[in-house]
Specification:
110 residues, alpha+beta, IGFL, signaling receptor binding, signal, IGF like family member 1, secreted
Length: 110
């Protein structure tokens, strides 16, 4: 009978986790280990929550992190600095591509 109880317990845990995950229930980690259903990405050897952080230059940084590009400031999780032109482009754009309305031209700081 103990074996049947273990099987039911495992089934119950599986069933509850499936219900929680199907509704996208947010789960905040309370330990260094990631919790079930929490969205996560990997940056080098570290995991992070993409709703709060991003991977920039092999480091986990907050989404609000900014950096200088000439006389401009850009958001490292969403934008990139093209240093040879001092242009800020969206992260998925190629620095060699033609300027778009989303780009910002910055000046060199001497």
């Amino acid at each position: 009978m103990a074996s049947r109880g273990c099987v039911l317990a495992v089934f119950a845990i599986f069933f509850i986790s499936r219900i929680l995950c199907s509704h996208g229930a947010p789960v905040a980690p309370i330990t260094p280990y990631l919790m079930l259903c929490q969205p996560h990405m990997r940056c080098g050897d570290k995991f992070y929550d993409p709703l709060q952080h991003c991977c920039y230059d092999d480091a986990v940084v907050p989404l609000a992190r900014t950096q200088r590009c000439g006389n401009c400031t850009f958001r490292v999780c969403f934008e990139q600095c093209c240093p040879w032109t001092f242009m800020v482009k969206l992260i998925n754009q190629n620095c060699d591509s033609a300027p778009t309305s989303d780009d910002r031209l910055c000046r060199s700081v001497s």
